[in-house]
Design goal:
alpha+beta, Cathepsin B, Chain A, 4 helices, globular, disordered N terminus
Length: about 290
């Protein structure tokens, strides 16, 4: 299941009237190493899932990271059956998408808050204490730290291998007349690599909608910072400035969208201690032994 990837990135920088390149400040490039992990790359399009998995990008993206953690020091996070890692991951996806955890809707997917609370519950149910943070403009509850996802925050401890990151991407079209980004939908992907050293930061992702399974198909995305315009109101979200967010060039998009924007990110890990439930139904925390 483990594989190591060497990613060679060729940058071709092109300016557009909507988004322009912006050189990072020194603080933006403190984390310099590109890391390409042997991250699983499960495809969400599975006939065993509701609606053939078309709405299961959230549970699938999270499952990639959970399996990676299970294979890198936390084996109890994912119960492996007869050493069948693919079956084990499918079972995790199915469980995460259920009403008990992320409540993935048959036609509407998974809201970020449901991803966060479902992930929290899953990790605790496996006997670990979760460490979960969220940055993004969509509702994040007690996990929320900021409305605009910061690349230095994403890189912090991800580069060292201590944390995994799930990216929440929005599909948009840009209206030139009103200088507004109109949302068409969204998607979750697993972060597998990161490079902040170039003028345009690079993210290597595993995209559940095109997941390669045993032969991962990483996608390399060039990021550009948005400098003007607004997000048009949608759902329960008001109009808000788009400046400071990042577009992602290189990700596979649906036909009805022109631009992919990094709306938010879930960063998570597990503490080095296990949860043991006592007879009094109170939780005690003990050092984990791996």
């Amino acid at each position: 299941m483990k594989r190591t990837f060497l990613v060679v990135v060729l940058l071709v920088c092109a300016l557009s009237p909507v988004v322009r390149s912006e050189k990072n400040s020194k603080s933006d490039i403190d984390r310099k190493s590109i890391l390409c992990r042997s991250m699983p790359d499960y495809c969400q399009l599975d006939s065993r899932l509701p609606k053939r998995g078309t709405q299961y990008c959230g549970p699938t993206a999270v499952s990639n990271a959970l399996v990676w953690l299970a294979m890198n020091g936390h084996p109890d996070l994912v119960p492996f059956e007869k050493n069948d890692s693919e079956l084990a991951q499918f079972n995790v996806i199915q469980k995460l998408g259920s009403d008990e955890y992320m409540k993935t809707a048959r036609y509407a997917g998974t809201d970020p808050l449901d991803v966060l609370t479902g992930l929290d519950k899953y990790i605790r149910d496996q006997g670990f204490e979760p460490i979960i943070e969220w940055q993004g403009y969509r509702e994040g509850g007690r996990y929320a730290l900021a409305e605009v996802p910061q690349l230095t925050w994403i890189a912090d401890k991800f580069i060292d291998g201590d944390f995994n990151v799930i990216l929440e991407v929005g599909w948009y079209n840009f209206c030139d007349g009103c200088k507004s980004y109109k949302r068409k939908g969204g998607h979750y992907v697993t972060l597998a690599g990161l490079d902040l050293t170039s003028e345009n930061p690079i993210m290597v992702i595993h995209n559940p909608s095109v997941g390669g399974g045993k032969e991962p198909l990483p996608q390399t995305c060039k990021l550009q910072r948005i400098t003007y315009g607004d997000f048009a109101p949608w759902g329960n979200y008001r109009k808000r400035p788009a400046a400071g967010y990042w577009t992602m060039d290189g990700i596979t998009m649906p036909d009805n969208a022109q631009i992919a924007i990094l709306e938010g990110a879930v960063k998570f890990s597990v503490a080095d201690k296990k949860i043991v439930k006592t007879k009094s139904n109170n939780y005690q925390y003990l050092l984990a032994e791996f």
